[in-house]
Amino acid sequence: MSQESINQRIKFLLENYKLSVRAFSELIGQKPANTQNYVGARGSMPGADYLQSITEHFEEVNPAWLLNGKGKPFLTDAPALTQTNISGKKNAFNVASSNDKTIQKNYELSDCEKELDLLKAQLDKAQREIELLTGQLKMQETIIQGKDQMLDLLRGGFARPN
To answer: Is the overall model pTM greater than 0.85, yes or no?
Structure first.
């Protein structure tokens, strides 16, 4: 399977492994922002260290295919990537495992709850800002109406006979 660009081949890997940009990035030890720049609208070109981290973590990915689109995407049959819980902790899980490799970071329910709380706080802040901006917009409309009335009065005063 040949993809048109290296960015599309990276996106193919994300889709094939059914991973989000963040999970894929953590698996290969890269920043999610970098991966997003490569697979998103920006379409930036990945560096050699990024590509090397893909081939080091996903040994079954064909490096020739990844670099130039030649050959098949995988050296062996497409790997099965599964979510597992190997931590032994209640409410904890690994993001993914592939061919006996697992990511180093376990996510616990408390981590997810903290992130949810942070997102709720950001949402509340955004809603307050929307309310403030809506109030400012209404005030601006009132000022414009007052200005228009003042202009009408001034124009009317000059049109009076002496």
So the answer is: no
